[in-house]
């Protein structure tokens, strides 16, 4: 690719000289350069940039790559492909996130509790057995047409 | 007007991994000390130098076939080839590796065994109706 080995990311910087060299390699100020903590997770000396998505970057600045809102040579976030404008958006919201979460959980839990109670204690209007006309459908049920059908009353006075 | 709750507006906002602090609430926006200005000037100098390099390559009458972005190459290298050399087995990485690699295996083994045992018990008692029986 035309880049030498010392221009590529390497292991975690231990001495201040290594930190300065790494900051210069990544085109950052030495004060801005902050590598990921050395937990053995495989980050090496890659800089830890603020976790802000590209939705928050200035839309009116003339970026070298306007769709990515990224300048040539600018250090890219480790999760760059997550923070592009098609994906995760970390823009500040009008309402604080913990307030939104609280309101949502209150609504969701209220609705779920009411649905659950409705399943355990169902309510319906009082019903009685169905009443059929024509002496309880005597002829339709195969009753003899020559005989008198039994009188069926569904009411009491 | 009701009494203000304790803490600054930025503290009450509580930014987290999903939302960041708005610039209006960030005290850093209103800080115009000489140190900050010097830092901003240094960052601008780096940015201008990189932009000049890029524009020179872009407007070259004999441009190269592809203008390589060293930042992109470093990003790709860091995420693919630099992970294994810089990985180190620590208690935390070993624990997480066990959770994600061995955990699902044991979980699904237990689930399938329990399901099969339940079905076997039903068949032995004669209560299980075979769905694809040839009889």
Automatic annotation (TrEMBL), chain A:
Read off the InterPro entries from this record: NDUFB8, Ndufb8_metazoa
What is the species of this protein? Formicarius rufipectus
Residues annotated as transmembrane: 104-124
Any idea what this protein is called? NADH dehydrogenase [ubiquinone] 1 beta subcomplex subunit 8, mitochondrial
KW Cytoplasm (keyword) present: no
* Subcellular location, record wording: Mitochondrion inner membrane
Q: How does this protein sit in the membrane?
A: Single-pass membrane protein
Q: How does it assemble?
A: Complex I is composed of 45 different subunits.
| Entry GO terms, CC | mitochondrial inner membrane
Under the heading Pfam families, the entry gives: NDUF_B8
Q: What PANTHER family would the database entry show?
A: NADH DEHYDROGENASE [UBIQUINONE] 1 BETA SUBCOMPLEX SUBUNIT 8, MITOCHONDRIAL (PTHR12840:SF1), NADH-UBIQUINONE OXIDOREDUCTASE ASHI SUBUNIT (PTHR12840)
From TrEMBL, chain B:
Q: Transmembrane segments in this chain: where?
A: 94-112
List, alphabetically, the InterPro entries matched. NADH_UbQ_OxRdtase_NDUFB4_su
Q: What does the record say about its membrane topology?
A: Single-pass membrane protein
GO CC, any one term: mitochondrial inner membrane
Q: What keywords appear on the UniProt entry?
A: Electron transport, Membrane, Mitochondrion, Mitochondrion inner membrane, Respiratory chain, Transmembrane, Transmembrane helix, Transport
Q: In terms of domain of life, where is this protein from? A: Eukaryota
Specify whether Mitochondrion is a keyword of the entry.
yes
Localisation: Mitochondrion inner membrane
Q: How does it assemble?
A: Complex I is composed of 45 different subunits.
The job of this chain, per UniProt, is described as:
Accessory subunit of the mitochondrial membrane respiratory chain NADH dehydrogenase (Complex I), that is believed not to be involved in catalysis. Complex I functions in the transfer of electrons from NADH to the respiratory chain. The immediate electron acceptor for the enzyme is believed to be ubiquinone.
Q: What family name appears in the similarity comment?
A: Belongs to the complex I NDUFB4 subunit family.
Protein name listed in UniProt: NADH dehydrogenase [ubiquinone] 1 beta subcomplex subunit 4
The record lists the organism as Formicarius rufipectus
